[in-house]
Amino acid sequence: MRVGVVTFPGSLDDRDAQRAIRLAGAEPVALWHGEHDLHGVDALVLPGGFSYGDYLRAGAIASLSPIMAEVIDAANKGMPVLGICNGFQMLTEAHLLEGGLIRNDHGSFICRDQQLRVENTATDWTSGFESGQEITVPLKNGEGGFIAAAETLERLEGEGHVVVRYLGVNPNGSLNDIAGITNARGNVVGLMPHPEHAVEPGFGPDTADAMRSGVDGLTFFTSVIARVLTTA
Amino acid sequence: MPTIVVEVMPKAELLDPQGKAVAGALGRLGKSRFTSVRLGKRFEITVAGHVDGAMLAEIQELADTVLSNSVIEDVVGIHVLEAPAGETH
């Protein structure tokens, strides 16, 4: 089981994503934005960061990178693809996911451990969660406000395409407290929070049990491994 | 060389946090007659050769697909800048 992580100019969390994949039990494969080669991976992660300085729009220039032609093709054929933060922005810019992400409504960058509720456990990346499970993973963004036209939002809600929702105070003005969505097939998931930062005791969010012991993010990566191995 | 200008604005129905921040600054300067600000983008694209209908159609396509994201923005204007006086081709 090999999971590719694409590095773009300005990616920040590519190494963390690779480490999360290794801790979950798969082999991470470093991919480069300028190539037209997915190196035969079974799944893909588009990591967080500020690709191309987020000039034009967040994730917009990265979504036009050479490797994105192969990413879009693979996603349309059913390969599991997870976009985290800047990766989520790229997925909306590439039209693999609906809606868009705009500057936080309060105008400030936000960085905190965020409580979330998992709404959809049928996706390739969330099958290991219980429906309605409450989890905590770090959130850090300046442009995380999820928006969509009213009829799109209604359809996303009606078809169960909302994957995770913010609990407590809405951190960025996202409509309906949406923190992550999926496509109709459930193989493409975009998340504004960062599960790759909550995968190892000692380095995750605080929990009731102990400081920095939160590993709720690991389940996104173990879920995709289970999904790929059962369909192989 | 001619220049084509493309102007893009956040959709009117969406919150524009950047414009809101600028409006807040104007308020703090006592400029109370200016009640709101919306902030968009202007692209100036220099063209090799002359501008014809096909090129404008190509720019319209780029404006709709690359320079703007129709989920969050509208293309509000495309026009050709006259060459500055004295410039020769």
Automatic annotation (TrEMBL), chain A:
What subunit structure does UniProt give? Part of the FGAM synthase complex composed of 1 PurL, 1 PurQ and 2 PurS subunits.
Q: PANTHER family annotated for this entry?
A: PHOSPHORIBOSYLFORMYLGLYCINAMIDINE SYNTHASE SUBUNIT PURQ (PTHR47552)
Q: Which UniProt keywords apply?
A: ATP-binding, Cytoplasm, Glutamine amidotransferase, Hydrolase, Ligase, Nucleotide-binding, Purine biosynthesis
Q: Which PROSITE patterns match?
A: GATASE_TYPE_1
Primary localisation category: cytoplasm
Write down any Gene Ontology CC term. cytoplasm
Gene that specifies this protein: purQ
HAMAP family named in the record: PurQ
Q: Which SMART domains match?
A: GATase_5
Recorded hits in NCBIfam families, A to Z, give: FGAM_synth_I, PRK03619.1
Species lineage? Bacteria, Bacillati, Actinomycetota, Actinomycetes, Micrococcales
Question: Tell me, what does this protein do in biology?
Answer: Part of the phosphoribosylformylglycinamidine synthase complex involved in the purines biosynthetic pathway. Catalyzes the ATP-dependent conversion of formylglycinamide ribonucleotide (FGAR) and glutamine to yield formylglycinamidine ribonucleotide (FGAM) and glutamate. The FGAM synthase complex is composed of three subunits. PurQ produces an ammonia molecule by converting glutamine to glutamate. PurL transfers the ammonia molecule to FGAR to form FGAM in an ATP-dependent manner.
Q: Which GO terms describe its molecular function?
A: ATP binding; glutaminase activity; phosphoribosylformylglycinamidine synthase activity
What processes in GO biological process is this protein linked to? 'de novo' IMP biosynthetic process
Give the superkingdom in one word. Bacteria
Q: What is catalysed by this protein?
A: N(2)-formyl-N(1)-(5-phospho-beta-D-ribosyl)glycinamide + L-glutamine + ATP + H2O = 2-formamido-N(1)-(5-O-phospho-beta-D-ribosyl)acetamidine + L-glutamate + ADP + phosphate + H(+); L-glutamine + H2O = L-glutamate + NH4(+)
Q: Which SUPFAM superfamilies match?
A: Class I glutamine amidotransferase-like
Q: Name one Pfam family in it.
A: GATase_5
Enumerate the subcellular locations listed in this protein's record, separating them with semicolons. Cytoplasm
Query: Which pathway is it part of?
Result: Purine metabolism; IMP biosynthesis via de novo pathway; 5-amino-1-(5-phospho-D-ribosyl)imidazole from N(2)-formyl-N(1)-(5-phospho-D-ribosyl)glycinamide: step 1/2
Q: What is this protein called?
A: Phosphoribosylformylglycinamidine synthase subunit PurQ
Q: What EC number(s) does this enzyme carry? A: 6.3.5.3, 3.5.1.2
Query: What does the record give as the active site?
Result: 85 (nucleophile), 194, 196
UniProtKB/TrEMBL annotation, chain B:
* Keywords for this protein: ATP-binding, Cytoplasm, Ligase, Nucleotide-binding, Purine biosynthesis
One MF term in GO for this entry?
ligase activity
Q: Does the keyword Coiled coil apply?
A: no
The answer to keyword Nucleotide-binding applying to this record is yes
Q: Which InterPro entries match?
A: PurS (IPR003850), PurS-like_sf (IPR036604)
Q: Which GO terms describe its biological process?
A: purine nucleotide biosynthetic process
Q: What's the name of the protein?
A: Phosphoribosylformylglycinamidine synthase
This chain's source organism reads: Cryobacterium algoritolerans
